[in-house]
Amino acid sequence: MDQSSQAIPVTPDNAIVWHNNRLYLLDQRYLPHQTDFVELNSAQEVAYAIRDMVVRGAPAIGITAAFGVVLSVMQAGDHWRDKIDADIKTLAASRPTAVNLFWALSRMRNKIASFEGDHIIKMLLDEAKAIHQEDIDANHKMGALGSALVEGKTRVITHCNAGALATGGYGTALGVIRSLHANGKLAQVYADETRPWLQGSRLTAWELLQDDIPVSLLADGAAASLMSGGDIGWVIVGSDRIAANGDVANKIGTYSLAVAAKYHGVKVMVVAPTSTIDMEISCGKDIPIEVRESDELLYCGGKRIGASGASVWNPVFDVTPAALVDAIVTERGVVLSPNSEKLAQLMA
Ligand code: MRU
Fold it and tell me: Where in the chain is the domain with CATH 3.40.50.10470?
C-alpha cells in the first residue's frame, strides 16, 4: 500500500475513492484477507483494473470508467483531444456485459461534446463524482422500495456480490438486505458462495459482517435444497444488464436459482438502477455474455484443482427470463411481473 492510500479508511463504502488527483480502488481480488488499495493514474490502468477484477459489479465498473476518462485528460494535458477517443474505446473494451460501463462512458462523452472553455478536467471530474453520488442515492431509494415489498420477517438468498463493493456504496440487492435488517424484517440472509470467483463467500460475507449483519454461506448447489425446506421468502439479486422485455443478465448461477425459486414458490427480486436497463436490446438472448479464462475454473486460491486435460466453458453471466422475475426494483419505482410495456413505461 502506498503512503497516500493509508489515509483512506477500509470500508465497503470506500471501494472507489478519488483522492489527491488519483483514483484508488480497494483491490477486490484479495478481499477479505488483504485490504489494500491500488492507485491508478491513467485510462489504461483503469481498463486493466476493470478487466482484471480489481473492481467489479456493474455500477462500480461504470463509476470507475468515468474516473478513467478524467485520468485520460489529466495525463494528456493540452493534447487531451488527440487521445480521448482511443482511451474511451480502451475503457469500453474492458468488459462486455454490464451496460453501466457504456452508459457512464456515454455520459462522459456527452460532456466532452458540449465542452467549451478552459476547465475540462473540472467539468469531467464533476460529472464522474455526480455519477458516483447518483448511484449511492439510487441505492438508498431502492433499498427502501425493495424492503417495502417484503411482508413480515423473511429469510433471503442472494447471489454474487451486489453490495457497496459492486456499486457507488450501500448496494443494490445488499441495499435492500441492509434496509430489511434496519427495519427488523430480515430473519436470515444466505449468500451463495458464487463459483468460480467467490464473490459471495469473499465479498458479500465480508461486507455484511462489516455491518454486523449475520450471514450464512451456501455452496451454490445447496440453494434448491434450502428452498425445498419452505422457509425462504425471497431470492434478492442485482443485475448487469436488463433487456427491454425484462430479461435479466446477472452472475452465472442466477438463472438456476430463479428456476429453483419458481418451482418452490419463492419470489425473485432483481434490484438495479435504471442505468442497468438497456432499452436498445429487446430480449435477453442479445445480451453479450462474457466468457473468461479457463484458469478461473481450473485453479482455486492459486492452486490447480481441475484435472489436467479437461476443457472448460466459463461464461460468467447468464440470462434469467422475465417470466421468472417477480419484481424489478429501480430508483424510479418497482415493476412487478416485468414485461416490455411496463419497462417502456418506467423508462419513458
Ligand atoms: O463478474 P462480476 O463480479 O462483475 O459480476 C457482478 C454481478 O453479477 C452483480 O450481481 C451485478 O453486477 C450487480 S452489482 C450491483
Answer: 142-347
Identify which of 26, 54, 56, 237 to mutate to test ligand 1's pocket (most ligand atoms within 8 A of the CB).
56
The CATH code belonging to domain 4-136 is: 1.20.120.420
Predicted confidence (pLDDT) per residue in 96-113, tens digit:
999 999 999 999 999 999
pLDDT higher than 50, residue 1: no
Secondary structure (H, E, C), 173-211: HHHHHHHHHHCCCEEEEEEECCCCCCHHHHHHHHHHHHC
pLDDT of residue 3: 58
Helix then strand then coil, in percent of the chain rounded to 5, is 45, 20, 35
Nearest ligand 1 atom to alpha carbon 238? 13
CATH 1.20.120.420 maps onto the chain at 4-136
CA of 56 to the centre of ligand 1 (A): 6
CB 96 within 8 A of CB 288: yes
CATH code of domain 142-347: 3.40.50.10470
Write down the pLDDT at residue 7.
Answer: 82
317-320 and 299-300 strand pairing = unpaired
Is residue 240 within 8 A of residue 249, CB to CB? The reply is: yes
Centre of ligand 1 to C-alpha 113, Å, is 30
Ligand 1 centroid to Cα of residue 62, in Å, is: 12
pLDDT digits (tens, 9 = 90+) for 271-294: 999 999 999 999 999 999 999 999
Locate the ligand 1 atom nearest the alpha carbon of residue 98 and give its number: 12
CA–CA gap between residue 67 and residue 62 (Å, rounded)? 9
Q: Which residues are catalytically annotated?
A: 240
Residue 301 pLDDT class (50, 70, 90 cuts): confident
